[in-house]
Specification:
By secondary structure, this protein is of the alpha/beta class. The protein has three domains: about 1-85 and about 155-225 and about 315-335, FAD/NAD(P)-binding domain (3-Layer(bba) Sandwich); about 95-150, no CATH class; about 225-310, D-Amino Acid Oxidase, Chain A, domain 2. Helices cover about 25% and strands about 30% of the residues. It contains eight helices and 18 strands. It has helices at about 15-25, 50-55, 60-85, 100-110, 115, 125-135, 155-170, 280-290; strands at about 1-10, 30-35, 50, 95-100, 125, 145, 150, 170-175, 180-185, 190-195, 200-205, 225-235, 245-250, 250-255, 260-265, 300-310, 320, 325-330. Strands 1, 2, 8, 9, 10, 11, 17 and 18 form an eight-stranded mixed beta sheet that branches. Strands 5-6-4-13-14-15-12-16 form an eight-stranded mixed beta sheet, sandwiched between helices. A two-stranded antiparallel ribbon has the order 3-7. The longest helix has 24 residues, at about 60-85. The radius of gyration is 21 Å and the shape is elongated. The structure holds flavin-adenine dinucleotide (FAD).
């Protein structure tokens, strides 16, 4: 069985696939997205931190790409509101990274020195200055750094808006479509074949299947080029808002929502394709969160969940063309796929 030829077929409807599809459709191309099971991917599980400065281990191409992407976020968020009416929760709320000891604080200062030299907004702070920004932080906090330009977003809203905007731009979504392999003829990619044998042909093929990307036949990737790195999150629902900005602390981060919820994340585990939430992870995350912000101790637990980050050996995303002509990769975004949506 054949579906009619489109310009592009995108394999995977997570943030990488949806954002690519939307951008291509807005440039006038006909696009089809093949998605096995919406909601299965990391994109729906993410904490929504738009934090290139929090995440950067140092200056380099990935840090620069992430910074460029953050700069494009206001435009993406505004265009999604315009196209769909959905507020994706993009807030330029700033972020804190804190330590409990003077040596930890000095370590943070050393790690962000390049950012100050590069002219990025970073303010070193002592414990009192950190608590002035986020009064919920405990007395143990010895200081750290404040990043004025960091932001946050609500990933489920982002995913809803991306899909609707893409559909309105003409993208066709086919859900329940499990792709078995990339179609390659005469050394050129020409679409995808589903598990049921259906061929979906296209002039170009985009591989955006997240942690599952290198499981596809003829993917052009080494077998373990992309591996799942599980991240578990505990959602707390305080009666009144405790925090407005993102906080990275020892053992956890806190990512607040406008309605007062706080996401406590996240573990980093290589546990295969398993999205179970474990008691050890919940204990460790809550222990770290309550030490950092004791007021969260009264907050009811909302939900817990886990997702699979697409990890690569060098921690870098796999973007652009490879050895197979007309096959374009948009995968391996690891910890930064939501941040990288605009690029
Ligand atoms: C707990 C957690 C917290 C995170 N927090 C942040 C954060 O704060 N900021 C940030 O920037 N990033 C964060 N990330 C990382 C981010 O979520 C990922 O980098 C990003 O979602 C990857 O997007 P993706 O579209 O490549 O993959 P996914 O979202 O995993 O999407 C891949 C899609 O492909 C589909 N698929 C797979 N195989 C097939 C197939 N054979 N046929 C058809 N469809 C298929 C899947 O069903 C899935 O929907 C977090 C991740 C986790 C797990």
């Amino acid at each position: 069985m054949h579906a009619p030829m489109s310009d592009v077929v995108v394999i995977g409807g997570g943030v990488a696939g949806c954002a690519s599809a939307l951008a291509l459709a807005r440039r006038g191309l006909s696009v089809r997205v093949l998605e096995r099971n919406p909601g299965e991917g990391a994109s729906w599980a993410a904490a929504g931190i738009i934090g290139p400065q929090l995440e950067a281990a140092g200056d380099g191409p990935l840090a620069r790409l992430c910074l460029a992407s953050r700069a494009l976020y206001p435009e993406l968020a505004a265009s999604l509101v315009e196209a769909t009416g959905i507020d994706v929760g993009f807030r330029q709320s700033g972020a804190l990274r804190v330590a409990f000891t003077a040596s930890g604080r000095d370590e943070i200062a050393r790690e962000v020195a390049w950012q100050r030299e590069a002219g990025l907004a970073v303010e070193l702070c002592d414990g009192d200055a950190a608590r002035a920004r986020a009064p919920a932080l405990c007395d143990e906090v010895a200081g750290g750094a404040w990043f004025e330009d960091e932001a946050r977003i609500d990933p489920p809203s982002l995913m809803r808006a991306l899909r609707i905007a893409a559909e309105r731009a003409g993208v066709q979504f086919r859900t329940g479509a499990a792709v078995r392999r990339v179609l390659v003829e005469r050394e050129q990619a020409c679409g995808a074949q589903l598990e049921d044998g259906t061929k979906v042909e296209a002039r170009w093929t985009v591989l955006a299947a997240g942690s599952w990307s290198s499981l596809l036949e003829a993917s052009g990737l080494a077998p373990a080029a992309v591996r799942p790195a599980r991240g578990q999150i505990v959602e707390l629902t305080p009666a009144s808002p405790v925090l407005s900005q993102v906080v990275y602390g020892p053992g956890c981060y806190l990512s607040p929502r406008d309605d007062g919820r706080v996401l406590v994340g996240a573990t980093m585990e290589f546990a295969g394709y398993v999205t179970a939430v474990t008691s050890r992870a919940v204990r460790d995350l809550l222990t770290a969160a309550l030490r950092l912000a004791p007021a969260l101790g009264d907050a009811p637990i909302g939900r817990t969940w886990a997702g699979l980050r697409p990890h690569t050996n060098d921690d870098l995303p796999i973007l652009g063309g490879g050895e197979i002509a007309r096959l374009v990769f948009a995968t391996g975004h690891f910890r930064n796929g939501v941040l990288l949506a605009p690029v």
